[in-house]
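Dear colleagues,

As part of the handover before I leave the project, I'm documenting each prediction I ran so the next person doesn't have to rerun anything. This entry is a single chain, and its sequence is reproduced below.
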Amino acid sequence: MTRLPARAPSSGALSLSVLGPLSGQLDGRPLLLGPRKQRLVLAMLLSRPGTPVPVDVLTDAVWPDAPPRTARKNLQVYISSARTLLGARCPDGPDGGGGERLVHSCGGYLLRVGEDELDSLRFRSLAAAGRRAADDGDPRAAAGLLRRALDLWQGPPLHDLRDSPEVAAEAERLEARCLTVHEDWAETEIALGRAPAVVDGLRDLAERHPSRERIRAAWMDALHRTGRRAEALAVYDDYRQLLARELGLEPGAAIAARHRAMLTGRDTADRTGNAAPARRAPALRAVLPAEVPDFTGRGEQLRELLDVLGATSGRVVAVTGAAGTGKTALAVRAAHLLADRFPDGRIHIRVRDEQGSVRPAAAIVGELARLTGGPHPAEPMTDPEHWRHWLAAHRALVVLDDVPDEAAVRALLPGTGGSSFVLTARGQLAGLAPVHRIALPPLAPAEALALLGRLIGPGRVGLDRAAALRIADACGLLPLAVRVSGMRLAVLRHLPLAEYAERLADPAGALDELVAGDISVRARLDSGWQDLSPGSGQALALLARAVREGPFTLPEAMAALGCGERQALRAVESLIDAGAVTSPSGEVTAHCVLYELPRLMGLYARERNAVPEPVPEPARPSAGRGAGAGSGPHSGLRCVLQLCQSGIPNDGGQFLQVKPFQVPDQSPPRPN
């Protein structure tokens, strides 16, 4: 039986609305929400109810261009006024919980509101109830619930405050959710034989969102079922021309099949509206790993991932970061939380085999066919094209884990339909588009300490917090390394944290310490090293030898690599693309950038490719030296020639083909 969401608020309660202009009522009377800047703060807090909104985000929302020096104090004034306006505490009950209404949490502010107090929460609850009813085989109840959700909308969300880019971004997420629910409702009404009720609304939506294929397909179907076959065919033809003109694409498999059925007269859809729609097939079981029980931090990235996947169908999200940053844990956690959004299944697939080799696309498709119930006569799934046809007709979430490059997954991604994908990769997968990208940085120090505390107990961390922080820093704030340290310390209960911190601080033995049973940080770093080209691996080794760890500049990279500016820049950017070196998230000119070599990656690079000290040698004429090689020692010249041989272009963008320069061996002869 479908559980109905909470009722709308009655008189005597707080009622807030963001599905239209920002407004509120208290005891049935309009609530004055204050000046514009305070309304912007409220809009941001209400757009993320029950979630901490960072102070920096609130500042950007109120002052998009140049915040004043008093911005933080002014924010505190607006927060204080909001507390007075909304009440210091939530009402007792399952929604409010009787706690403080507006609190400072995790570097931001969190506003607690109940489902009966905020229209966007009621909308989300009604939409979820409608989808559950559809999955349970009750389309009439589903249509009613979805219609009630849509009736909460009073116009474009927060349209009176959209001149703030932060508020506009939140409003667009809300609008995308509304669009998806409208599509669900229209398809349900059409299946019930009530196509005339949705034709006009779908036409209006198609005019506002001309490239939204699901809307076009529903509009075409509704026209056809009301006897307007010529208009339905014209809708498809207009859409096909739009895609070809603006994107160079063809319509997706599902809408194309519907169009062919209309042309050939093989459409057997019931046009009388009397036949009851077939019960939807049961949802596929979730084929997901178990969630990490000590999952810590990543609140901002998890919220972003849930928002992107929950707002719009057919999305591809790339979660990228260095080895051990917790990409898989984040993707799996999001997949577990999105059960009601993807009724046709949530699937986790590894793109590499146990030896780290890339699996053929046919092998991945075969596993997907087995997990989704195919192949079978009606839907044979033997190659990527059949897989994309299945995607076009279903709404599933697929996690493709440990993607080595774009070519390994490009054929598996959807061309259209309601299914979404999460890709986890060390590299940036720059050749895939359009893709929403989420980069995972190291943990914040407080998050790393919290993770360590979950593994060894907060009391033990509290006894020597300084040593615990040194352990986290020695791990480079990498979740995998912190977790391995915690697992090791949980077994070695006698080992003082300070002594273990000293072990990790020793570069010669740090990686030896980061082993717990069959889990090894060195092994994970090695898998990342295997993805590097020979030239990139050599460049990383030279950088690790020269800069050790921490930030470095472009001139320092030039000195380490012994080459010119353009070639050093390409070498560093190649390492950034591979996830071995990090760079700032904002725009900075090359000469001002502080790149960073993560500590553990630097330790492994020096261990893997130790570079010998340069051997003095008589000077050679400069005429035979490569452009941009500089006048440093022979190790620099050897480096630039090796980089050119391995595929890093020179300053002119061409790949040099040269014979390797060998430094003569001047060591004494070995005895026989």
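The mean pLDDT is 78. The CA atoms of residues 27 and 194 lie 39 Å apart.

All the best with the project,
I.
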